[in-house]
Amino acid sequence: MNPKLARWFVRLYPRDWRERYGEEFEALLQTGRSDRRTLANVIWSALGERVFPTSRVMLAMNQYPGSVITLAKLPSAFIPMAMSLTALAVVLGSIALSGVVHEADEGFTAHVWQLLMAGQVPLLAFFAIKWLPRVPRQALGVVALQIVATLAAIAPVFFLGL
């Protein structure tokens, strides 16, 4: 395609879009096919970009959270912490209802606690594998929160010998 015509087609797109993709798209238009179908597609896409800008969608689809709090709101970060706190609540609830009981056979409370604590291990591994390479600083903060929640759930069992 003619460079002037390619530049004109790029000018159909909004300024934010042109700043991000303009040069690359113009080069693509200059080297690619210039049949009616391509031109209609470029015009249709420019109209769509003016109605539904990609820049707003990209803000909503940010793949890299900027803070520990934002990252902690993700299910892979929040669910293990919730499981640890639930395990803590189960143990404390059992202690509140029946006191510290040392039984030969583990009861329902012990099994629920074990399932909650063991069930979070794959979720913790998934979170670490996914987020530590991408945003190590924020991910380490969330991992620290997860460790604190896990230690809080383990503490009564350890110190009371349950």
- In total, the number of strands is 0
* Total domain count: 2
Unreliable stretches: none
How much β-strand is present in the residues?
Answer: under 5%
**Based on helices, strands and strand pairing, what is the structural class?**
mainly alpha
In short:
This protein has 162 residues and is an all-alpha fold.
Q: What this model shows, in words?
A:
The structure is a single chain. The protein has 8 helices and no strands. With 162 residues, it is mainly alpha-helical. It folds into 2 domains: 58 residues; 93 residues. The chain starts with a helix and ends with a helix.
Q: Notable features of this structure?
A:
162 residues; mainly alpha; 0% strand; rod-shaped
Produce the secondary structure layout.
Elements: H1 3-10, H2 15-31, H3 36-51, H4 54-60, H5 68-72, H6 75-98, H7 108-131, H8 136-160
